[in-house]
Amino acid sequence: MKQKLITSQEIGNVIRKRRRELGISQERLAEILGVSYQQVQRYENGSNKLNVESIQNVAAALAVPVAYFFESANLTVVAECPIPYQPTEEKTLLKHFRQISARNGKLVVISVARLAAKGH
Q: Which domains occur in the chain, in start order?
């Protein structure tokens, strides 16, 4: 019995659906992936095939396992809350913030961040 292959268009539809679930624009996804938004459009409409590296990058950006793109549409999936994309600086800040045990220390960091944001 021959197994049905998942087409680039079907994978593109899954990418578009997941991107929209997360509320991410094509431009933002392109920024995360380091490609143009036109490339994201080509992925989503199936006109470009994704290579192994690209599909892994898309999966990471959309907080899903690679297998997500190949699962049957008939499966019922319970999804956890997606992990939003975070630039390296945000991850580093959050890592250090979580290591602060004193409440006053956390309040100081929050105050500094608030002041820095106002200066932006």
A: 8-70 (1.10.260.40), 88-119 (no CATH)
